[in-house]
Structure formats: structure tokens, C-alpha cells
Amino acid sequence: MKMLKVLAVLLFAFAAAPQSAFAQEAGGLSGLGGFLPLILIFVFFYLFLLRPQQKKAKEHQKLLNELKKDDKVVTSGGIYGIVVSVKENIVELKIAENVNVQVSKPSVTTVFVRPSANTAEVVAGADIIKK
Hints:
Elements: H1 2-16, H2 19-23, H3 27-65, E1 72-75, E2 80-86, E3 90-96, E4 99-104, E5 108-113, E6 119-122, E7 129-130
Antiparallel strand pairs: 1-2, 1-5, 2-3, 3-4, 5-6, 6-7
């Protein structure tokens, strides 16, 4: 949060700086002064938007690669099921007795792992769920 405040102050300082001060300096610095706010905006977007999104995408891909039979999962459409088989890009889920559906692998959003008989831990998604 401190980093966000520092970047906001720097961005405001360079945007609010009088343009005449930059015009009086040497020719090379006046061009840099004009691009500095754009550079700061790009750094801000990278640090606070792009990097966290890339990290989340890597975690989701890792979750999908570790899918195995008998995992309890939730799809992006809200279907709860148990993994019956995992193919290249298709996951077959058992959603009721004698009812299996095939969903695309990327639509799996949450995987539940059972460490013990009385608790269920969520690998990705919400907090710990008590049973």
C-alpha cells in the first residue's frame, strides 16, 4: 500500500510540475520529462494489474495440471462434481448417481482436498469449509 501511495505522489508531482521549468532545461531532458508520467503509469499498471493477473493464471494452470480422479471440484458454471477421468482438455465429472458430464478443463475453478474425515480444505477458491 505504501508503494501505491509513493507512485501516486510521484505521478501527481510530475503531472502538476510547470511545463516552463522543463522547457528551460537542456533539450534532452525536456523529452524525458514529458515521457516520465507515461512511464510511471506503465509501471503502476504492471505492478498492480498485470503481474497479479499473471500470477493468478499460473496458479490456476497448476491447479488444472494437478487434477486427478476422485477430486471434488466446482466448475465456473457452479456444477459440483467428482472427477471420474481427466483427458487432455476434458474433465469428466460425476454429478449424481449414474450421471456423468464432460466439461472443459479450464472451467474447473475450485478443487476440494480432504485431509481428514471431519474437515475439507479448499485448494483454490474460498476459505476452509467445515463439514
